[in-house]
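Chain and backbone:
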Amino acid sequence: MIFLLLSILSSSVIFVIFKLYQRFKVNTLQAIIFNYFIAFGAGMVVDEHPIDLQRIPTEPWFFGTVILGFLFIAVFYLAALTTQRSGLSVVSVATKMSVAIPILFGIILYNESTGIIKITGIVLALVAVYLTSIKKKEGIAIRKRNLIFPLLVFFGSGIIDTTLKYLETTYVAEVDVALFSSTIFAIAGCIGTLILIIQGIQGSLKISFRNILGGIALGIPNFFSIYFLVMALRSEGVESSTIFPLNNVGIVMISTVLGILLFREKMLTKNWIGIVLAIISIIMIATA
């Protein structure tokens, strides 16, 4: 479980960095693109084995990393559109609730265990994520014409986690976990660079040092959030239908606590109820 805890902590640091982006007016798109290359570099440093970049395209998992790299950029763009049209809470719910997809994938494809306690825990985890993510008393409201965007974020995020599980189970050797993780970020960075080139051609590109610095700050925890998650999925005796809900609920809990301590965020009654349900769900899933 140590890898799962480290993944949760890394993802929670990402939350803090995104909050700081708002405070220091960092261009999120540029910072995220720069972050992908920093994350790739972190993977190269972590990998203790000799690195042969020429063999990467010949690896059986390479095509999967291309898909994941594209999804990383696409889901981010869709999340930005959803935030603009429906609000941050809608994005948070869509992203976190997408955990249902890899859970079902693990149960159906890999015949992972089910039971009344585990299923109840998973349901409580989803309810906890929803209640903790809603920061307005009136809940969330989505216009019909904008419904497609959170749905795409939901499915895109779920497909990312599911693809990670499938690739690490089927194709990725343990010695290649760092290389596999960093390759995803490298491809996402290349795709993102194309976006910046297009913006440059259109005359709308303005790169500042704060955006580069923001990317550097984000890149290291971002790499380790994926690296430790893949390592957690490889842990013997722990199923993905257990790992994914614990990961998402853990991120929500720690991020909420950090929001209170560092940014003095105010909590609604429904948020506290969500925290309590999150704790109960963690106990139920972990002991099932």
Remarks:
- The radius of gyration is 19 Å.
- The chain has a mean pLDDT of 89.
